[in-house]
Amino acid sequence: MTAIELVRGDITRESVDAIVNAANSSLLGGGGVDGAIHRRGGPAILEECRRLRAAHLGKGLPTGQAVATTAGNLDARWVIHTVGPRFTPEQDRSELLASCYRESLRVADELGARTVAFPAVSAGIYGWPMEDAARIAVETVLATHTAVLEVRFVLFDDRAYEAFATQLR
Ligand code: AR6
């Protein structure tokens, strides 16, 4: 049974086995939570991302998939990078967002991670409406078979926290 916890705060301050990063396909950094993870985690994360790009991820990490690297100086063993879809009203990309949570948990299982922290993937720069992002995140984690014992959603502000809390009620 996977327990779901909600925390309001900065995901780079969490102590867990794996911290999930809302990355982009390049894996070479960006703003938002991605920028914060690379800043606090230090250069070892980017070095490993560059190695992945030079090896089997030459074209980058496709949307909806996940890959792990070291967590550098973060208080975690791994960072699991996933690429959320950009929100657009013209097309339903919900399945790709659900895939981010499923694939991150699959990678976590491969690693043997028991505690995993997630941000609200796609709900920042990629524009996904927070309430819907929270619904997809919670529903997908609840529906995924995993050996992860604790999924911790780490929400940056009150609005995000409330959106996730509403889904769990
Ligand atoms: N801890 C927890 N949550 C955070 C933190 C933090 N330190 N910083 C931001 N958030 P975003 P996306 C929240 O934009 O929408 C990057 O440039 C933020 O308030 O980080 O998937 C990547 O390289 C929001 O609720 O990710 C991509 O190009 C949530 O995390 C692009 O942004 C996700 O916001 C990905 O956009």
From TrEMBL:
Residues 1-169 form the Macro domain. Transmembrane segments: none annotated. It holds the Pfam family Macro. InterPro entries: Macro_dom, Macro_dom-like. It comes from the Bacteria. This is Macro domain-containing protein. It comes from Streptomyces tuirus.
